[in-house]
Design brief:
mainly alpha; two-stranded antiparallel ribbon; 4% strand; elongated
Length: 453
């Protein structure tokens, strides 16, 4: 018997952006942007930029910046070894600095990491990873928004049952539902964009005072974070934020809102694509291992799963706002994995939402047929208003209550029963009981929503 292959101890998800248990983000742009290699690249970029910023301010020779930049090649470093050695000091920056210093060489090695603390580099690298991931996520949100805008415009007059508390309520139009989905995507886009533009570098030294940089010759240490930010395309913070974790909390909130917004679309599609409803369908459903006939709404399922996990991940990041002293023990460390998971989940959900929206199949004929499932009772609200001036409010309510029971008992439509009422013979009952003629301002609201860019 052949023994099974020994797995790579580093795990496939650290390098290839894949995981057996994470189909929602596997293979997405966010997956490759958040893997161990991506983090290693960001850590090295943060170190190289720090030396460049010091060189730009005359605190290091230009040759040192060139040497560190040349040595900061992710291919030259072993992420698995760094991960194992990180246990010694509690974070991967400590062994990375040792390896990078060795790679730079004796002459310029002393300029590696000079004046910084591990948290400066890891926080800055995290902001780089977040920025690079959000830059990949935003185009998927744009694809989703564009597809939903097209659906809303196409179906601004497509009537369907409105549902409240799982039951038919009054008619609406599918265009308004799609426009609502799009509004949520735009809300998410705006939050992601604002957070992306505000992501800051971290630079404060051992306890957030920039003291070491003064010891290395900086006459204005406060200028260094600005130069550092310029090197990396991030924001310069007003203060070091080692224990002022608003940037992480804001990022968590934007990602959780985005996952939830996409989740709303997903759960609606899951409901409307049930076999017994069938008003929409995913463009290409997934198969079943046991039932060949099934075309499961897999994209919606994966998005819904992400939306259910995101709030708990964000909660951990919010909990880390309570970070003691000038640098914390545990609160900072607790952020790393949940934030990466949140970036991956939301990025994967954005990828899946774009595919879902672009391939969604809408079935207006099924929607129209479902408007008749309650034998005309779906327009009872309209009839209450229209019959009150004719019959009086109390009599109209009493009549409609009586006829509602009879529609099911006699298997007759509400319109047919109303036609038997002598006082109503002069009314256009066909119009009054047509669900498609009682969608209110749904089409106008759809148009209004589509004006937002």
């Amino acid at each position: 018997m052949t023994s099974p292959a020994v797995p790579d101890p580093a795990g496939s998800d650290t390098d290839a952006g894949t995981s057996l248990l994470a189909p929602g983000w596997t293979g997405s742009p966010a997956a490759s942007a958040t893997g161990d290699r991506a983090y290693l690249r960001a850590l090295l970029d943060a170190e190289a930029a720090l030396t460049r910023a010091q060189a730009a301010l005359g605190l290091a020779p230009a040759e040192a910046a060139d040497a560190v930049g040349a040595a900061a090649d992710p291919a030259a470093f072993d992420a698995h070894s760094l991960a194992e050695r990180a246990r010694g000091g509690g974070n991967p920056v400590i062994p990375l600095v040792a390896d990078l210093t060795r790679a730079v060489g004796e002459t310029y090695g002393p300029y590696v990491h000079r004046g910084a603390t591990s948290q400066d580099i890891l926080d800055t690298a995290t902001m780089l990873v977040a920025a690079r991931t959000l830059d990949l996520l935003l185009p998927d949100l744009a694809r989703t928004e564009g597809a939903l805008a097209r659906l809303a415009a196409e179906h601004r007059n497509t009537p369907m049952p409105g549902r409240t508390l799982t039951q038919h309520a009054v008619p609406t139009v599918f265009g308004l539902k799609a426009a609502g989905w799009r509004a949520l995507v735009l809300d998410a886009r705006d939050r992601i964009t604002a957070v992306r533009d505000a992501l800051p570098v971290q630079l404060g030294g051992a306890a957030g005072t920039l003291a070491a940089f003064g010891s290395y010759g900086a006459t204005d240490p406060v200028a260094l974070p600005t130069a550092y930010a310029g090197e990396l395309g991030l924001r310069a913070p007003v203060l070091p934020w080692h224990t002022l974790r608003t940037p992480i909390a804001d990022l968590a909130g934007a990602l959780a809102v985005t996952a939830g917004a996409l989740g709303k679309i997903a759960v609606d599609v899951l409901t409307l694509s049930r076999t017994e409803i069938g008003e929409v369908a995913e463009g290409s459903g997934g198969g079943s291992s046991a039932m060949p006939h099934k075309a499961n709404p897999v994209r919606s399922t994966l998005i819904a799963a992400a939306a259910r996990r995101a709030p708990q991940l964000a909660a951990t990041l919010y909990g880390s706002l309570a970070a003691e002293d000038e640098r914390p023990a545990g609160a900072w460390h607790a952020e790393w994995e949940p934030l990466r998971d949140l970036l991956r989940l939301t990025g994967g959900a954005a990828r899946d939402a774009a595919e879902l929206a672009e391939g969604l199949r809408v079935r207006p004929d099924v929607m129209r047929a479902h408007l008749g499932l309650t034998h005309g009772l779906i327009v009872s609200e309209r009839l209450s208003a229209e019959l009150a001036p004719v019959l009086g409010r109390a009599r109209a309510k009493e009549l409609l209550t009586e006829l509602a029971a009879r529609t099911y008992a006699e298997e007759r439509s509400l319109g047919e029963l109303l036609a038997d009422v002598p006082e109503l013979r002069d009314l256009d009952l066909a119009d009054l009981t047509d669900p498609a003629r009682y969608t209110g301002a749904a089409a106008a609201l759809t148009d209004r929503a589509l004006e937002r860019r």
